[in-house]
């Protein structure tokens, strides 16, 4: 069986964190999508908070400590990347940015990336397009069309819609990994009956 390696970088600050929860669900969806194609997936979870001191030392000295070097190599050698950050001041967190600051600027060139972010309210969802996409475009990565933002409500009443976005993003990542044109979901494929709309 063919095997694919997926690096999962999550920059949540607490344990547990909603960023880690989203990262786990994205990784599981990608594994399921690959499994459906007869491909085994190995997901390597990288909690950036565990390497905060090493990241600071790397920035100050220009050299990564041994443990951080191993983590950076995991990202460089992975077939694809899932990157999830909490939203701070309408952007990615400083810890998230620090990780990609020390990564070799050619490490993600041509690599498929699934972008994710978490935040308190839906109004921060544009962080995906206005902060994360420019960063990964600079790194010459290949972000898939569907990014996944999870607000607090997505872990409750919005869980079904979140699962749909996760499944779509996973499908696109695997398609990009295999140089296919991912199928875009048609929002009019299963329209709500007019009677249901009238009844609220």
UniProtKB/TrEMBL annotation:
Keywords: Flavoprotein, FMN, Oxidoreductase. GO terms for molecular function: oxidoreductase activity. Residues 6-155 form the NADPH-dependent FMN reductase-like domain. The keyword Cytoplasm does not apply. It holds the Pfam family FMN_red. Residues 181-200 are annotated as: Disordered. This is NADPH-dependent FMN reductase. It comes from Kribbella turkmenica.
């Amino acid at each position: 069986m063919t095997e694919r390696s997926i690096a999962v970088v999550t920059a949540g600050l607490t344990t547990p964190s909603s960023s880690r929860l989203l990262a786990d669900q994205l990784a599981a969806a990608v594994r399921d999508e690959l499994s459906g194609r007869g491909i085994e997936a190995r997901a390597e979870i990288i909690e950036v908070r565990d390497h905060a001191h090493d990241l600071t030392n790397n920035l100050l000295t220009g050299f990564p400590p041994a443990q951080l070097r191993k983590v950076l190599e995991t990202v460089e050698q992975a077939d694809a990347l899932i990157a999830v950050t909490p939203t701070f001041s309408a952007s990615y967190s400083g810890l998230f940015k620090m990780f990609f600051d020390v990564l070799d600027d050619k490490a993600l060139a041509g690599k498929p990336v699934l972008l994710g972010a978490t935040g308190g309210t839906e109004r921060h969802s544009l962080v995906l397009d206005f902060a994360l996409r420019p960063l990964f475009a600079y790194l010459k990565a290949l972000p898939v069309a569907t990014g996944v933002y999870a607000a607090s409500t997505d872990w409750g009443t919005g869980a079904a819609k979140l699962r749909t976005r996760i499944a779509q993003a996973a499908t696109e990542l695997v398609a990009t990994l295999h140089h296919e044109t991912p199928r875009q979901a048609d929002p009019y494929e299963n329209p709500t009956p007019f009677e249901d709309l009238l009844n609220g």
